[in-house]
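Re: your question about Aldehyde dehydrogenase family protein

S., sorry for the slow reply, the queue was backed up all week. Below is exactly what I fed in.
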Amino acid sequence: MTPTERLYVGGVWTEPDGGHYEVVNPATEEVVGLAPEASRAQVHEAAAAAREAFAGWSRTKPEERAAILDRAATIMARDADAHTALARAETGATTATARGMQVAVGSSRFRRYAKGALEPVEQPLPPQINEAGPMGAAGVFGAVAVRRPVGVVTCITSYNNPWANPAGKIAPALAMGNTVVVKPAPQDPLSVFAMVRALEEAGVPAGVVNLVTGSAPAVGEAAVDSPDVDMVSFTGSTAVGQAIGEVCGRAVKRQLMELGGKGAALVFDDADLDSAVRGIGTTFSFYSGQICTAPTRVLVQRGVHDELVGRLAAYTAHLTVGDPAARGTVVGPVISAAHRDRVEAHVELGRKEGARVVAGGARPGLERGFYVAPTLLADCTNDMRVVREEIFGPVVVVVPFDDEEEGVALANDSDYGLIDYVWSGDVARAFRVAARLRAGGVGINTIGRNMEAPFGGFKKSGVGRDVGSYALHAYSETQAVVWPG
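Result:
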């Protein structure tokens, strides 16, 4: 039996007005399940339910919110095997990625924000002595800045991680006392239903969490333009983010946006090339390059250019492409046939622009599935579209540079600025270069992340910061409270 989901509105599982659409396994092209097609009216009902629940939830004790989030994390971890199989089926991620980077990270984020619900929200300010005047008598005035919940938050999540990405929005929003309307990506929403069921089992009150889905853009539009929504948290393409920003701007709604990326990896001639190849190679392997933080744009100093290109080509030769459920598979499919065609079109465009295909460039010979061969393009220049545009697939482009000044200029010559990377044996230079990069984050000799560090982008890569305690700040408003001493 193909599982058929329903909307979750006001604590009730509800039949969708628009029927259902198929969620397809990108590795087998088989139907994984049927997701609901909500109407605009049902999305607005979900936002109204969140509005009604806000007064009660925002006044709950932090300890109560923490307990619910912690129970939800435990329930998600309890059912990790089933969640892993579902995530692998609807995303095409390998078993290791689905288990370790999707389900496990999703559960851990709920655990993190269970603790976050207990973090202090008050910041005492120095007292101020005021002289008598039009504003009143002289006196000493105390003040405190307090973080308050924003209200109703629409969480629109990306397809590349249906566990970690929704958890990174829902958990801190709830921890701060907000209520939410969750609208997952249409390609792989089924994991989010499992997440919401865990929250329901954990005892989240009716209306605090609402889940709406749909394959049509109208569903996301309704989740943004509802008058009951105070804030939109979005992860996805820059183009969609710009459209959301226009709607939010007209209504003066808060925004948190993680948008596109085209991460520059500056590799200097004194770099540890083994480390650089391992880091850059994750673009090919980790979720088939469908990750906005990937170092897809490699800027390499000429002294080590040929060696680095050769090592990257050798790296791709050892990547097994195939069934994500099979042991040993490193690269699975991309999310859909349409996206596979888009990635392949970019590779062909690169050829026409003069790039040299060093590895990949042809579709893998698999009978089924939306597979793209890990592809390395060399002899690129910064004006090529394959260098400037986000491809969001297992494709790396290489651009040479002569000196530090040119390398920094090339890195910053981009519409994007999410995470850049620097590989150099000279730590002082690496930190000096990092300070000049127009990016929300910089990895020095690593692609690793510190999950308490702020995350977000410069330029067209986003608005705002989240992760760690920064997410609690993102889902709150600051209120000043002043009193006479």
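The two ends are 69 Å apart (CA to CA). Residues 7-259+461-484 form a domain with the Aldehyde Dehydrogenase; Chain A, domain 1 fold (CATH 3.40.605.10).

Happy to talk it through on Thursday.
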